[in-house]
Amino acid sequence: MIRTLRFSRILIVLAVLGVLLFYSFSKEKTTSCFLVIGKGASETERNAVDDFKQDLEKTVSAKVHIVSDVNDLTDKGAVIVLGTPASNDLIAVLNEEGKIKITKETPGPRGGIWAKTTLQGEEEVIVIAGSDVQGFQYAVYDYSNEMLGIDPLQYWTGKEVTPKSIKDLFNFTDRKIAPPKVPLLCYFENDVDELANYRGDLLSYDWESYTEMINSLVRLRYNAIQIFDMLGRPEFFIRPEYKELTDYKLDIAYVEKMIDYAQKKGMKVAIDFALGYQIHPMSADKATCWADYKEDWLTAWRYYLEETPLRKTDIFILRPRHQVWDWEYESSCGEDKVEVFNEVYKAFGDLVDAYKPNADKVLVCYSDGMEMWNDGFRPPKDWIVAWSDHGFGDFEYYPDTTDGYDFGTYMHAGFWLNHTVHNPYPEKVESVMKEMFSGYDADTFCLVNGQNFRPFLLNIEAYAEVCNSPNSFEADAFYKKWTEGYFDGESAEHAVASMKYLHRAQQERIGYVQHLWEIREAISYLSDSPIQRPGKLPVAHDYKRVENDLERVRFIRQEINRAVQEAEKGLGKVKRNKNFYHDYIYLPARLYQDLVDFEQTLHDMSVFKKQFEDTGDDKFLNDAQALLPQAKEQLEIIYRNRKTGDKEVKWKNWYNPEIRRPNNGFPTFQMLDQITLNLNTKS
């Protein structure tokens, strides 16, 4: 029976070949490009082919046609055969004839090939195929990147496209694309305020931004996305600073639309089944005693699975923490948290199995979750364990044992403490991920937190590369390839140097947002007033807090000045993608420099104020007051550069302080007025 089916398929394909030969292999000038897909192509395959068609139309001066019926080949042209052996009979026959080698097992799941072959001994055709749908996706997107010069991040970088000829399409050697090391690479949309605010409704992605983020992630081999902020995280409708910004209301239909789009692009959708989302919030007082409120937790989870778009979840995530706020679980009824979550994961896992059998379940050991693991916390064996970095790409704790579990990692391309300006660290990506792969077999799953995405493109791509092929990933080579993909040689070298200094400026878990807190400490001391925190107790002013930052900020200022100097040198030499050089290399370093310069002035004023308090000598008070005009001018520069911001019109308003994530506040001119008034009263 199988042989009969194969023979029938071959007869059909021979008819196809005859038409292809007639239309495709002429000595006349090629005017068209035919993308031949199978009639069994899935929606995801067709979506990838549509993307490929658009990529070709951007680069090649030819009409591009998608065909699955040979009668649609109505012109002379080049032929590219696309799909999998299961979806495209022509690929299956070429494999059976030994002209290409592609099966479910070779190269294997998420693997693929590029090949050139002949049909009936005539001119060449191109075959881009995958062992499965994802393998086909990555084969075709890799081809677009390497052969057509289409940047996977083009929407975000604005990379200029170089025209190609039809002949250029064939300028490659046959390639086998091995399956990636990590089979589940998941992007975590978290702390996304700027991306959700810079156009459209506040705290909600505009459709273009969201879909373009998904499109880029798929091209980078991310095959899952954890949707988090867009489920209505509790801060959005509870924290005072957000309530002042907008009357947040979740659009549940829009959430479902986002889920559907990601799945159409071939991504699994991951959801952390925390219980505080506006989609169906549980009272926080029920999140501190599993013993008393177990049924409330289970009822809320059932509601998610029955009444909300979360029923479409593919990967179920849970953290062993407070289930409304992302805090350590502190039982209000005397429970041991290890025992609690041993029960919780069993109960939740059983619920998932009842609704979505064979779905992936992931324990994210974030923060104290790692200590709990080492203290004996164990979910059922069918849970993947994702070990968490400390926010800046390396680990504070390591597992004492993996205990036979499938292990993975939770990594940060960006962290809330450096939310505005990236900390480029391909070196960490290389060393830390290779250690986790070799030392702990933590290669089943990788979750990458990209914050608001756009500032963290370099690290996001670095994690994708190391999870694809750790043996071939080398940080300096990655830096070189990445920068030279956008900029000329010398300007690329300055870009790398600038980013390395920017990284050095952010040692010891320090980033732009952490400096905002340090600035508040200095302002608090200079104005003799507590730090006000919406919804939390105020923090009393204290010179010791300022003193602890003095030496470190001087070092940071030295490194950030070097980062800006290197960026300026490259900016003066760059010939290609000038706007992107300004916006991604120069501007972030400059914004960081602006903030640190302001902080340094506040520190100098604080030292003078303390000397005045210790000695009573008015000279020191006068010295502090004399720096106020400089501080005001520096704050004006901060606002001006953040509001002027990017050269690329598309990103106008991105850095506007009014739409920033409100963590740690932002300095204002009113704060400087308070300092002025306070110092004047001491004269």
Number of domains: 3
CATH H-level superfamily title of the largest domain: Glycosyl hydrolase family 115
Low-confidence stretches: 1-5, 21-28
Q: Cα-atom Rg, whole angstroms?
A: 28 Å
Q: Briefly note the CATH topology name of the largest domain.
A: TIM Barrel
In whole angstroms, how far apart are the ends? 100 Å
Strand content: 5-15%
Give the CATH class of the largest domain. Answer: Alpha Beta
CATH architecture call of the largest domain: Alpha-Beta Barrel
**Overall shape:** globular
Mean pLDDT: 94
* Count of helix runs: 25
Helix content: 40-55%
In the sheet with the most strands, the strands line up as: 7-8-9-10-11-12-13-14
GO molecular function: hydrolase activity, acting on glycosyl bonds
Keywords: Glycosidase, Hydrolase
GO biological process, one term: carbohydrate metabolic process
EC number: 3.2.1.-
Task: Name some characteristics of this structure.
683 residues, alpha/beta, Chitobiase, domain 2, TIM Barrel, 3 domains, 8-stranded parallel beta barrel, 6-stranded mixed sheet, 14 strands, 11% strand, hydrolase, EC 3.2.1.-, GH115_sf
Overall description:
The protein has an eight-stranded parallel beta barrel, surrounded by five helices. Strands 2-1-3-5-4-6 form a six-stranded mixed sheet, sandwiched between helices. With 683 residues, the protein is of the alpha/beta class. The protein is 49% helix and 11% strand. The chain has helices at 2-24, 43-59, 89-96, 133-148, 154-157, 166-169, 193-197, 207-219, 234-238, 240-245, 252-264, 290-307, 337-355, 368-374, 426-440, 457-468, 475-484, 489-504, 512-527, 543-547, 550-573, 578-615, 618-626, 628-644, 669-681, and strands at residues 32-36, 63-67, 77-83, 112-118, 124-130, 175-177, 184-189, 224-227, 268-272, 315-318, 360-365, 384-388, 407-412, 445-449. Helix 2 packs parallel to helix 4 (133-148), helix 19 (512-527) runs parallel beside helix 22 and helix 22 runs antiparallel to helix 24 (628-644). The chain folds into three domains: 2-177, Chitobiase/beta-hexosaminidase domain 2-like (Chitobiase, domain 2, 2-Layer Sandwich), CATH 3.30.379.10; 184-473, TIM Barrel (Alpha-Beta Barrel), CATH 3.20.20.520; 502-681, no CATH class. The relative contact order is 0.07. It is built from 25 helices and 14 strands. It comes from Zobellia galactanivorans (strain DSM 12802 / CCUG 47099 / CIP 106680 / NCIMB 13871 / Dsij). It is an enzyme of class 3 (hydrolase). InterPro entries: GH, GH115, GH115_sf, Hex-like_dom2, S_layer_C. This is Glycoside hydrolase, family GH115.
